[in-house]
């Protein structure tokens, strides 16, 4: 997808309003949302795929899909960032499974720069916002029990199914599903905290 204008600041506008504008075909609103969240989404795609070029392709695919399905967005069911992360995980898992099916080996690109830098279209302000979001997510994960955090990381960062996580951890499937559900609920609650100034 074409890179949004880098000079465009990410205002303190509401993501849900941006999604309404995107659903109406507003490309500028898509650019603002991209500037605001691309670094966070890229960090997840980079960690899942372990390859910077593949992660950049996935990032573009995620925002293209968001553009196509913006009219189905329901703010009552979750934030725009949560939708982006869900799309990233889902498409990332598809790519990982396809690579495994074809016997491909995903190599870690040690020369790749961290996602907050490699998301080239992100403005400096968007990078700060992304860093704050990432810190909030890390903080939320830190509040989980180690087993819950490990299960969530395996599901999201390695793209394992719940059954595969249960097998890896040698735990009952029901237990693993509970851990992952609780972790996602905690992350959802954290990401719903308003980002615009002031108090808690």
Molecular structure report:
This protein is 67% helix and 0% strand. The chain has helices spanning 15-23, 27-49, 52-69, 80-101, 115-118, 124-142, 146-157, 162-169, 173-191. Helix 3 packs across helix 4. The protein is globular.
| Helix-residue proportion | 55-70%
Mean pLDDT: 74
- SS-based structural class? mainly alpha
Number of extended strands: 0
Please state the second-level CATH architecture: Orthogonal Bundle
Largest sheet: none
The name of the CATH topology is Rna Polymerase Sigma Factor, Chain: A
**Proportion of residues in β-strands:** under 5%
**Unreliable sequence segments:** 1-12, 105-128, 194-200
CA distance, first residue to last residue: 36 Å
What is the 3D shape?
Answer: globular
| Helix-strand pattern | HHHHHHHHH
How many separate structural domains?
A: 1
Q: Give the number of helices.
A: 9
| Cα gyration radius (Å) | 17 Å
**The top level CATH class name:** Mainly Alpha
State the fourth-level CATH superfamily: RNA polymerase sigma factor, region 2, helix turn helix motif
Structure in a nutshell:
The protein is an all-alpha fold and 200 residues long.
